[in-house]
Specification:
It is a single chain. The chain is an alpha/beta fold. The protein is built from seven helices and 14 strands. The protein has an eight-stranded mixed sheet, sandwiched between helices. Strands 8-11 form a two-stranded parallel ribbon. The protein has a two-stranded parallel ribbon with strand order 9-14. Strand 2, helix 1 and strand 3 form a beta-alpha-beta unit. The chain is globular, with a radius of gyration of 19 Å.
């Protein structure tokens, strides 16, 4: 059973305010994306329960909503059996470390989070006839040979490399979600997330945006691997959360994963130059061989 984190309620109205939209569970609610989603759902009139084991999620991400009368946070690892009293209407599964330094630190647990965690949440959805959303990733495409990647592209993947605990875990979770839908009639929504940035992203997440910003603010050289001609799309977090909500509320559930991200691509060099410009940094761009 998870331990409920005691939070003070600053709402000046006595008691709990009415949750107009029902009760939503956000697994990984203290993370970068999860905390923004919790905030959005509260604003939309939901009662929100966040689950997080706080391995990579941070309490301070929830500081803006911790005292809301309709918000509760439970410290719990979704790999373990879920609390039995979690009666919910909607479930969002965002619980998995998403940056290489974090998911590679404990690759077995990362894979368990995607697979066992998904099973636990799907069983919860089955018990309560709840709608459930899976935050998957563009990493399921591996090192793609098609650009940009349509949802029907099956990818160019490595099933046993150092990234596979994350990539293949997310791919397995997608399989579980659609098998539960076909077998039990559960309403599932699956989004494949592309690069996202914004407030509360961790400076140590090992990805290009955060790496470049940290290096620029320190005045260090900005490290670009390869030529820098590689392209990426970067989506602002509020836009991504809007995509989550719209996908969850779509009248008919797509019977396939849906790509969510910015359709406009930038080269890595363009990103590095923008960061230097916006931070007024004196950093130099240096190139290193691709790892």
């Amino acid at each position: 059973m998870g331990r409920v984190i005691k939070v003070l309620k600053l709402d000046t109205k006595p008691g709990r305010r009415r949750a107009d939209q029902g009760r939503a569970l956000v697994a990984g609610g203290a993370g970068f994306l999860g905390s923004h989603l919790c905030q959005r759902l509260l604003a939309d009139g939901y009662e929100v329960i966040a689950l997080d084991n706080f391995h990579t999620g941070k309490r301070y991400n929830l500081s803006a909503i911790a005292r809301d009368a309709t918000f509760t946070c439970i410290r719990h690892d979704i790999v373990e059996e879920l609390p039995t009293d979690l009666a919910v209407d909607e479930i969002y599964n965002l619980a998995c470390p998403a940056s290489p330094p974090h998911y590679q630190a404990d690759p077995i647990h990362t894979f368990k989070t995607s697979v066992l965690g998904s099973i636990n949440l799907l069983e919860l959805a089955r018990r309560h006839n709840a709608k459930i959303f899976q935050a998957s990733t563009s990493e399921v495409y591996g090192d793609p040979l098609v650009h940009p990647q349509p949802e029907g592209y099956f990818g160019n993947v490595n099933t046993h490399g150092p990234r596979s605990c994350y990539d293949e875990g997310k791919r397995s979770a997608e399989t579980l979600f659609f098998d539960y839908s076909r077998t039990y009639g559960i309403d599932v929504r699956v989004a494949r997330i592309f690069n996202t940035y914004g407030p509360r992203m961790r400076p140590d997440d090992g990805r290009a945006v955060s790496n470049f910003i940290v290096q620029a603010l320190r005045g260090d050289d900005i490290t670009v691997y390869g030529s820098g001609g590689q392209t990426r799309s970067f989506c602002f977090v509020d836009d991504l959360i809007e995509g989550f909500v719209r996908l969850m509320n779509a009248g008919v559930a797509p019977q396939h994963p849906v790509n969510l991200g910015n359709p406009v691509e930038f080269t890595v060099m363009e990103l590095a130059e923008l960061v230097i410009d916006y931070t007024n940094s004196r950093s130099r761009i240096v190139h290193r061989p691709l790892p």
